[in-house]
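Consider the following input, taken from an annotated entry for NAD-dependent epimerase/dehydratase domain-containing protein (Cladophialophora bantiana).
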Amino acid sequence: MAERHPAAAFEAVLVPDGVDGTVHLAADKSFGTNPNQTISPVLNGVRNLLRDAAKEPSVPRFVVTSSNRAIYNAVPGKKFTIVANMGNEEAIGKSWRLPPYEEDRKWDVYAALKTQCELEYWRFGQEEKPSFVINSVFPSDVVSPTFHPEQPGSTSKLALDF
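Applying the prediction step yields:
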């Protein structure tokens, strides 16, 4: 972690037996353009979180804060209907295309990251059949004070860049 994010702080927390739930709130907000460096590590982390939560029988629910980008790419003036099993397949295709990894790909990589994590949550639920319920929340924006000025979140960064 120190090599990839030298200015970041990381704190490991031991969760005692009998935990009441798991909430996954964040993902890579680097807006990296290389899906191998951005998506793959987060997917591995999601798998580890799910496996660890499944080991604790007291966990009734696993809540995921995803993004509306996991469902669709908004196009002004284009109408669409959101359905339960919808995923942003377009972003997955665009993000995993061959290099070069240019700046215009960063939002597709971010959307694909969120989409692929969503797909992994649901795959795990169907195949592993954990004792907990998986819930997802798909906000379009999260507005709050910047938690870490050198690593602002996606919408925080947009406001700062503006």
